[in-house]
Design brief:
Shape: globular
Order of helices and strands: EHEHHEHEHEEEHHEHHEH
Radius of gyration: 19 Å
Largest sheet: 5 strands, parallel
Number of helices: 10
Number of strands: 9
Helix content: 25-40%
Strand content: 5-15%
Mean pLDDT: 89
Distance between the termini: 29 Å
Length: about 300
């Protein structure tokens, strides 16, 4: 095999049917967590030679203002529906939002939502960063969220899903518990890092509203049906004799998409369905991490 093409060795291979079963609190079958991406996009960010920030030449007024709907309108609509049906958020936060729109962060905190870092801005990419720059981003994230909310972040989702070869090692070194940057499984898994104690938290590209509406061109009804099919399959598999036990479903959201007036009722239908089903542990990412560690054992994660 050519150099550079080998398995990066981030995690061991573990067949789905040969695992120690996971049992979630209350003997629930599938842990469901909702991940609102509360983001801030710069209208004319510094250029990164590895990736353009906007589809159009800067300043991209259309792209910026579309996303600005999230903090002005979409967040409030989405958050109210989530609270109505008993779904807390685990926030993928552009931490600069704490300065630009602290009202949004304060609202999420008041609802009991958890925060993890999605970088500083979603228009600043990790590509090309040196170690000092990447450390500064992590330290800024920890400090800013703690000052704004009193919480210490436990998780990481790289800004705009961009990474360096050292990202996972660094967040583990800084004591973070989980990464959302691996999409390889439907259960938490240990991640191999140089130090620290990191697990992979199941996030999703497939049922991410960005993919649903921007990539797969789904209607609101199609997206809602997709979420329900995802939930039903994961719950059914967790109930099977000899299966891997508790599964995880993440619903990643962007409120400038799901919070649009013509989409929110379909999303509310999904929350109503999951809440009424009885098999879901409706929770937050950090709680899933704790339940997994306490059950599987920290010695297997180290």
């Amino acid at each position: 095999m050519q150099e550079g093409a080998a398995d990066p060795g981030l995690y061991d291979f573990s067949p789905y049917r040969d695992r120690k079963p996971i049992v979630w609190p209350g003997n629930k079958k599938v842990a469901v967590w909702v991940s609102p991406n509360l983001e801030y996009y710069e209208i004319d960010p510094p250029a990164n030679p590895h990736r353009k920030s906007w589809a159009y030449p800067h300043p991209d007024v259309v792209g910026y203002s579309h996303r600005d709907h999230a903090n002005r309108v979409g967040h409030w609509r989405m958050a109210e529906v989530m609270s109505k049906h008993g779904f807390p958020g685990s926030v993928s936060l552009s931490v600069a939002l704490c300065q630009h729109h602290p009202e949004v962060v304060a609202d999420a905190a008041a609802r009991g939502w958890e925060f993890f870092s999605h970088g500083i801005y979603n228009t600043r990419y990790s590509y090309g960063m040196d170690e000092a720059q990447e450390r500064a981003i992590i330290e800024d994230s920890i400090r800013t969220v703690r000052e704004a909310t009193g919480q210490t972040i436990r998780g990481w989702l790289a800004p705009a899903l961009t990474h360096t070869p050292r990202t996972l090692d660094l967040i583990a070194e800084y004591g973070l518990d989980y990464t959302c940057d691996l999409y390889h499984d439907d259960q938490p898994m240990p991640v191999k890092t140089a130090s620290g104690n990191l697990i992979s938290m199941p996030y999703s590209l497939e049922v991410n509203d960005h993919y649903g509406f921007f990539i797969y061109n789904m209607s609101p009804r199609e997206y809602a049906k997709t979420l329900i099919r995802q939930y039903e399959r994961l719950a059914d598999e967790a109930e099977k004799e000899g299966g891997a036990g508790g599964t995880v479903m993440c619903i990643p959201l962007h409120s400038y998409l799901i919070g649009q007036p013509h989409r929110i009722s379909a999303f509310e239908m999904v929350l109503r369905h999951i809440a009424a089903d009885g098999r879901a542990w409706i929770t937050r990412a950090g709680d899933i991490a704790d339940a997994y560690r306490n059950q599987i054992g920290r010695e297997q994660i180290a």
